[in-house]
Amino acid sequence: MRATHVLIEPMNEELWSAVDRYISDVLVGHDAVLDAVLEASDAAGLPQISVTPNQGKLLYLLARMRGARTILEIGTLAGYSTIWLGRALPPDGELITIEADPKHADVALANISRAGLPARVELRRGLALEVLPALASEGKGPFDFVFIDADKPNIPEYFGWAMKLTTQGSVIIVDNVVREGAIIDETSGDPSVRGVRRLNEVLAREKRVSATTIQTVGAKGYDGFTIALR
Q1: I need a surface site. Which of 42, 62, 99, 203 has the fewest CB within 10 A?
Q2: Residue 181 and residue 185: Cα distance in Å, rounded?
Q3: pTM for this entry
Q4: Separation between Cα atoms, residue 58 and residue 20, nearest integer Å
């Protein structure tokens, strides 16, 4: 049998974005509610840093595979990933999402309401490192699934709280952990890179979790996410 050779174009962000669009068109499809979320985010001038549609569906699938009934999200932005995760819950499930920026929180609440999820999703306003201890003191959790997508300098601390608020079998996902490859620079002075590297040091020592990091390319450039299983 004669081998078939496929010409692969040089890797670049234009190609990555085109592949993302293809995957989203074929396997994710268009969703009027989610499209409206992105439009509302842009209209409000929020940063364009939400997960992509195929990444949103990945979060949805991971939460469904876990059978999550309780989800904690650290970093709401406009609520795009919140809605994907909220849709993964059963009707009596609960998602608590934390957002520090008042404007972001207002936009997210409107989007969550538009998605028909206000009964399933609770948005807590405030700095995560202040809200997380409050959740613990209220007896919230254990959460089946945690998505950390907030400021990177503090992710080791967010992960520490995620460990306090989860139990055996819980899944913890951390986004934006490759930083365009900068995580391999041990001399970096970038606070976000240093935060990710500290997280990896924590994960390497933490015997209660098994974790790995997946590199990603796409419409949001070159990055990656970490998956940890308690």
Answers
A1: 42
A2: 8
A3: 0.92
A4: 13
Distance separating alpha carbons of residues 124 and 134, to the nearest angstrom:
10
Distance of alpha carbon 94 from alpha carbon 71, whole angstroms: 6
Alpha carbon distance 159, 122 (integer Å)? 20
- Tokens encoding 168: 């055996």
Q: What is the pLDDT of residues 46-76, one digit of tens each?
A: 888 889 999 999 999 999 999 999 999 999 9
Which domains occur in the chain, in start order?
15-229 (3.40.50.150)
Q: Tokens 């929020």 map to which residue?
A: 46
Residues with Cβ within 8 Å of residue 210, at least 6 apart in sequence: 228, 229
Q: Pairing between strand 94-99 and 121-125? A: parallel
Secondary structure class of 227 (helix, strand, coil): strand
Q: Tokens 């932005």 map to which residue?
A: 77
